[in-house]
């Protein structure tokens, strides 16, 4: 007979299991790779500590070819993983950010916010805000020497896109002069209790995503919690989104695509004053670019994101 201690009461496949004794076993996203010079892209990286008290860290990137006095856009990157897995040093994310830095010619800071369930929400949001505040004031040579703080972009995929959304509101409400030029949202992790569009027929995946969110953020509001549903009661109006430009990327086979499209429509039809664009990748699923970084579709999405960051508005 299996002992009670070894029973598995909760599985969040393919990511983790929680045993009855409270032990969390992560099945994915735990691999790490060191920083340094990426020979393929010519991008340098190093790890920095953001907050010694909590252990909050980040990986900072710059093109090896950047010249003294040259100022490049600054990108804060927030990785995905449903707030449960991965880090800035996860090989897939390290590769993704290297490619973005090379393509867009930017300085990037990829944030390793603390993960649920050990650190329940809103810890990830607080860590990300701390990273944003700190990176603008810290005495870091790569930032001081090469980053143009007037061209600050937040970029994230899945949960990281969700984080970027919330930081943009917080930045606008902050007493500090945090000005965000734009947000790049890749397959944003937004959700809701009532299914919309293709979610209506895909009941299995709807229930799966509901379960993931309930585990990360248990509350009586469920998937209509303002952290996950930007259109529910209690969520700030998108009119107050604190940036000038937004790019939203969705994937045809992604269960989350309907929410990304709705976000785009609300920005277009609402009172928000800014420019928004959207691209949809046919035949691909959620965060495909992380696992297929060299496929034609991932290359095109990175190219579009680089154009978005470097766009000069007249």
From TrEMBL:
Keywords: Hydrolase. PROSITE patterns: LIPASE_GDXG_HIS (PS01173). It holds the Pfam family Abhydrolase_3. Gene3D superfamilies: alpha/beta hydrolase. The keyword Transmembrane helix does not apply. Residues 75-289 form the Alpha/beta hydrolase fold-3 domain. Belongs to the 'GDXG' lipolytic enzyme family. This is Probable carboxylesterase 2. It comes from Camelina sativa.
């Amino acid at each position: 007979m299996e002992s009670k201690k070894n029973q598995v009461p909760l599985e969040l496949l393919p990511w983790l299991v929680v045993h009855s004794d409270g032990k969390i076993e992560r099945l994915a996203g735990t691999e790490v790779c060191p920083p340094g010079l990426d020979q393929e892209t010519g991008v340098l990286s190093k790890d920095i500590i953001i907050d010694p008290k909590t252990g909050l860290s980040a990986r900072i990137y710059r093109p090896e070819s950047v010249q003294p006095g040259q100022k490049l856009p600054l990108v804060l990157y927030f990785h995905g993983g449903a707030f449960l897995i991965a880090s800035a040093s996860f090989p897939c994310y390290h590769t993704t950010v290297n490619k973005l830095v090379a393509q867009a010619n930017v300085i990037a800071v990829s944030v390793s916010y603390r993960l649920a369930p050990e650190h329940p929400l809103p810890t990830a949001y607080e860590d990300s805000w701390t990273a944003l505040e700190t990176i603008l004031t810290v005495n870091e040579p790569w930032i001081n020497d090469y980053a143009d703080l007037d061209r600050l972009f937040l970029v994230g995929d899945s949960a990281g896109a969700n984080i970027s959304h919330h930081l943009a509101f917080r930045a606008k409400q902050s007493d500090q002069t945090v000005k965000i030029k734009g947000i790049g949202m890749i397959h944003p992790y937004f959700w809701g209790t009532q299914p919309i569009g293709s979610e209506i027929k895909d009941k299995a995946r709807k229930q799966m995503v509901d379960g993931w969110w309930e585990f990360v953020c248990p509350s009586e509001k469920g998937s209509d919690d303002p952290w996950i549903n930007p259109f529910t009661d209690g969520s700030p109006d998108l009119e107050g989104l604190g940036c000038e430009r937004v790019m939203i990327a969705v994937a045809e086979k992604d269960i989350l695509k309907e929410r990304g499209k709705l976000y785009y429509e609300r920005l277009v039809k609402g009172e928000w004053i800014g420019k928004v664009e959207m691209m949809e990748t046919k035949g691909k699923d959620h965060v495909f670019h992380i696992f297929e970084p060299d496929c034609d579709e991932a290359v095109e999405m990175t190219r579009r994101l680089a154009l978005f960051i470097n766009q000069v508005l007249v």
